[in-house]
Amino acid sequence: MGAVGLGCMPMSWAYSTSQQRGDRSLRTVHAALDAGVRLLDTADMYGPFTNELLVGRALKGRRSEAFLSTKGGLLVGDQHIVANGRPGYVRRACDASLRRLQTDVIDLYQLHRADPEVPVEETWGAMADLVTAGKVRALGLCAVGAHASRRSGARLHDGTIRQLERVQQVFPVSAVEAELSVWSPEALESLLPWCTARGVGLLAAMPLGNGYLTGTLTPGQGFEPDDPRARHPRFTAEMMAANQPVVSGLRRIAERHGATPAQVALAWVLRQGPHVVPVPGAKREQWAVENAGAAQLELDDADLTEIAGLPRARGSWD
After folding, report:
1. Catalytic residue among 15, 46, 109, 212, which?
2. Cα–Cα–Cα angle for 54, 55, 58, nearest 5°?
3. d(CA 251, CA 283)
4. What average pLDDT does range 172-199 have in this prediction?
5. Sheet of 175-179, strands arranged across
6. DSSP states of 112-127 as a string?
7. How many Cβ atoms from other residues are within 10 Å of residue 266's Cβ?
8. Is 46 known to be catalytic?
9. pLDDT tens digits, residue range 32-80?
């Protein structure tokens, strides 16, 4: 089985900000490392900047234990987020991330979003220069947003694959980060096959369905105003109730294995291939340790068939 990573974003950005605690987040990172987690994923826009500072503090004295991934290319304003892919900015952003992370090298540096005003090849070339300079070991690309890819007749990840084909001509892509979970399996259609054919890793973002697949959320519970789930079409009270059969199915399988629904959801992601690494977010030690334990859960063919037969997840757009 593969390994589970740790998405650090919820510790200091979005998702129940009133529950974010610096000391608790440090303990969570340490608990994840102790449990065998190696991939830590962050970005300069998370906070902004505070998430990288947190990860830098957490890795003090433990840097060699982690495979460190961060992202650049997005600027956060008061009411907006904009892309900046100008080569000069890319170089400055990387240097700033290195300082905040208190490290000499970033293992995986990802382009968070391409700048529509700058040819992606220029941005990627500047990132490749960072590898040559020894500041970065490998480059990755985050999948473009669903709204940017959904044109009439287009598959969800067609836009991402077009970007990948372009940047691959400049410098090798080592990893792609995209949503992949039991209730959002679209990456299996074309993006994962593209990656598998080229030996490119897939970092599975939101593998627990923004927390829904853990079975710990109650329909109608409500979310804090700055929590993105407060505006997500799958997190209305009606849709959360309608999607309960998905969680119930995961719970049935979990009970057979002495596991949790979250561990089943992560084990399903791990079964999608050796190049796939789920990167669930966690704010508490217990969740980080539980998630790491999914690497030991072996789903059999009957489990996979049962998961494949679960109802399609619904959103308020349906």
Report:
1. 46
2. 90
3. 22
4. 97
5. 6-7, 39-41, 67-72, 106-111, 136-142, 175-179, 201-205, 276-279
6. -S--TTS-HHHHHHHH
7. 30
8. yes
9. 999 999 999 999 999 999 999 999 999 999 999 999 999 999 998 877 8
